[in-house]
Each structure stands twice: as structure tokens, then as C-alpha cells.
Amino acid sequence: MTGAVSGRVLADDSVDRAALGAALASRGAVVDRLNGAIAGDDVVGVISWERPVGEAELAALPRVRVVVTPSVGFDHLDLDAARRHGGVWVCHVPDYCVDEMADTALALALALMRGVVALDRHVRAGFWDAEAAGPLRRIRGTRLGVVGFGRIGAALAARAAAVGFEVWASDPGVDDDAIAGAGARPAALDELLAACHVVSLHAPLTPATRGLIGAGEIASMPRGALLVNTARAGLCDTGALLAALREGRLGGAALDVLDVEPPTPEHPAPELPNLIVTPHSAYASPEAEAELQRRVAAAVRAALDGGAPDGALVTPRR
Questions:
Q1: Is 26 exposed, middle or buried (0-12, 13-18, 19+ CB in 10 A)?
Q2: pTM (global) more than 0.90
Q3: What are the catalytic residues?
């Protein structure tokens, strides 16, 4: 089916609805805020950054043509339900903030190794001791393990190698020759964890990767190792991570993602002297935001025009 498709596109607050509406006006689409239930006989598109879209939502959307998440991650979208639904594109934006994510992961790793945050806290508390963060580590020659060697993991590997890290990488979905060709040493996950003093997580959150780093995996890491997670909180057992930090098994960690976001009184942000927490901001820059808006609008337009949008995770049955 081609041509303009009239109806509503429901978009959450991560998308500039005015700009999207202008882009879709000639296609007869009205853009409404996504609030309340995701449902409607006239809804042809849904854009949801974190609201779940699954079996019940799709059943309540008889005319929906496209579901887009304005993010790299897509664990809130039920892809199997979309395939059963049969007539809907499901898309994400897999490469809009690669630079920002890789930059942040490297910045957090460097901050942990050089004690930047801990020393800042120490000085602001009225002290002056260069050893307050413990021994500061030399970057050059330190082994950095990248878990997940997609776009972001590969971009981090290139940056890390440039500042002197010895980069290892593990990804069962990427050929060892491709990892080696990118300048990293390919390794199985258990080998990487045992060998690397800094580990950065960049795998997608799927049923297979949920809890990928648990108590056993943390125990296998060198004593005093550092862990960075800018991907998804569910990749790592937070309780095991915090216990390892308290016990000194891990030397430090940096998290841009939490199990509950934003934190609540019932689920507060963890506070430990060897832990850095940032508010799921690794993706952010004005340039990335502008690119995201363009890519989301383009995906919706393509689907409503009968074309094939970029970033497709599910393709409708014809």
C-alpha cells in the first residue's frame, strides 16, 4: 500500500511532535501526545522511547503501520508480538548516538582509573590528599574489555586504543577476524573477564543477555577491577555489583543506567564512594538529538508511504 495514510501518530515526549507533525501533514497524519493507553482505531503509528508495546497494545491498534523507538535499545518492544500481528514495521535508531555513547564510556573509565570523581568529592569536603582515591592507575597498557562489539563497542575500542589501552572484545555475534581487524583482541566472555582490569558493557538487553554479569562473573574478574555500564541495567546483577564494591572485590564502577529510572524513595540511586552514577545521559548532545528527530520522522514517513524504513527490527508480512 502506498500513498498518504490518514490517521494519528502517537508520540512520547522524546520526540518533537510539532516538527514530526509538519513532516507528516501532507500524508494526512495528525501527531498526538502518547498518554494513557496505547490504543485507537485511527492510530497508524506509535513512537515510544520506553513505554512497552506488546500483544495487548498491538491488538488495540488495528490500523497501526509502524512502531518506532527513538533509541538504540528496544527491550520494551515485544518483537515476537509484532511478528504475530503481521502488518507492522518495528524500528529503532541503531546508530544515532554512537559517538556520544563511546565518548561517555571512555570518560567514565578514565574517571574511575584516575580518581577524578572521588578526588573532587574529597576536595569539596574540605580535604587535600592526592591519595584519597587510592592508587591512581596508568592508562597505557591497561587491558580494557569491551563486551558487545556493535557500533558503540567498536567505537569505544578505537578511542581506547588511541589513549593507550590494550583492548579485548567479546561478542558471539561478531566474527573474531572482524574484531581483530578493528584492532581488538577477540576473546570469550570468561577469558575477557579474567584478563581485563576494566570492563565496559555494550551488549543489547535480550533474554539471552539479561543477567550476563552476575556474582560468578564478577568474582572471576581481577581483584580491584573496574566495571562501566552505559548500556542497560539488566545486563548486570546490581546487587552482586554493589556487594563486590563494598567488599573491595571490585575497585570501582560507573553506571549510566539503573534498574529503576528515575530513582524513587523505594529504589534510591546507590551511593558508594567507589561508584559513579549518571542519569542515563550517555546518549545526549544537541547534535545527537537533532539527528534522532530526523531519523524517527524519516522512519515513520517511509512506513506510511509504503516504503522500507531504516532500523527495521520487524518487517510486515506482505
A1: exposed
A2: no
A3: 232, 261, 280
